[in-house]
Amino acid sequence: MKKLGILLKGIIKENPVLVLLLGACPTLATTTGVISALAMGIAATAVLICSNIVISMLRKVIPDKVRIPCYIVVIAGFVSVVQMLMQAYFPDLYDMLGVYLALIVVNCIILGRAEMFARKNGVIDSALDGIGMGLGFTLALVAMGSIREIIGAGTWAGIELTALKPYAVSIVTAAPGGFLVFGCLIALVNKLTAGKGKKEFSCEGCPNASSCGKTSCESEVKEDENK
Predict the structure, then answer these.
(1) In the structure, how many helices (H) and strands (E) does the chain have?
(2) Whole-structure pTM value
(3) Which of 78, 126, 206, 208 is the most buried (most CB within 10 A)?
(4) How many Å apart are CA 168 and CA 160, to the nearest integer?
């Protein structure tokens, strides 16, 4: 059950995009369509899983003082592999993602999981964490991309939706529409998870945990509820 919990927590409870609010830049930039959103999600998931595994394997070897640069080197290596594979076999997707594919190197979701989970846990748990967080990231991107493409362009994955095409609202595929859809999805997730047990988010997903000094965000949540 513990391993199942590690796998599933990234989907809803600690979704990196809609709950932890990490990776907002690629989320907003690549969700103008379903295909680009799915491609970004799969690419980031592949890098996340591989980097988590390698960093977990090397966690006792990497010096503590230079761990962040080491993580970036490992992540950059896998990003380069993904870039080359995509450029060779999926050139259209490579051009569609553009600079955001290379920016996976500094994606705070991947760096956050390396720092807060992979360096403290075994290979299997780290792989499961990468799969779960990657799946949650991909689902969030696809959901947001679907909404923006259907409402903003009257299509889905490039397939024209004849009944909706005349009513397309083009601003939804622009930056303001991205922020609007992003906010609505965050509000929806908060609404769906409200009242289902106490809200306690582990510090494993927070990039500021090292300077915070707390073990969870439960106390802050309770204070907000009492106001």
Answers:
(1) 11, 2
(2) 0.82
(3) 126
(4) 11
